[in-house]
Fold this sequence. Notes:
By secondary structure, the chain is α/β, with parallel strands linked by helices. It has nine helices and nine strands.
Amino acid sequence: MSPLVSDLHLYDIANVKGVAADISHCNTPSQVRDFTGAAELANCLKGVDVVVIPAGVPRKPGMTRDDLFNINAGIVRDLVSAVADNCPGAFIHIISNPVNSTVPIAAEVLKQKGVYDPKKLFGVTTLDVVRANTFVAQRKNLKLIDVDVPVVGGHAGITILPLLSKTKPSASFTGEEIEELTVRIQNAGTEVVEAKAGAGSATLSMAYAAARFVESSLRALDGDGDVYECSFVQSDVKLGRKGVEALIPSDLQGLTEYEQKALEALKPELKASIEKGIAFAQKQT
Length: 285
Ligand code: LMR
């Protein structure tokens, strides 16, 4: 529905034609084309500005996102390799789980091909923001449209860190509310996986969140200088004598004690997931 989408290229290893025919009947100006199988991937990617990668298998109840690593890591590696060859300047949105590892895999593949631009590689964590906004608005009786809760870290369990103290419009939370909301936001993906009882994970809310992130990217590419989104990206760091001293994004300043503790607690897990992704990508070369 976005007027900023001029062409929509759909790619999969099967069943693309029907989806493309279906969506092409929407009365929007965008041209829809379908591409099936590895032989058509290069043509799908040539000339595109934004690539969205939701490929791979979903979780079943009892699984963590990391349990998907063995299957999804290779899928992301191969798709990103084709992106590097055919549209190296595109924004790349990684949705495939485990995002905490697939984004570093993508970064390594792009580095190996000499086209890595950290400013253009994003792990899509918008669904965490969408969920945080929904749950906070419900809990505090706020008008949902106005609510914005930044979420930092990664996209799995405790690595998802909602910064409730930075909620806009400003709201106050009891200690119990903070704990409850934080845990619900961190486990919201699992809530859907369990409700679907083996039939997959979030698809509709994920599509909604992905559409929001694509729309934001397209607005930015179109020259809008006022676009803000949370995302899993390679951050700038402050360097000191002993190496990395601190992350400096402004959202990480002025945290509450609860948030600061949670931030320290998530770092080892996030770091391990990043290193797992890097090791996987480096092993292949
Ligand atoms: C989500 O957050 O819903 C997705 O990452 C899918 C999942 O496995 O939870």
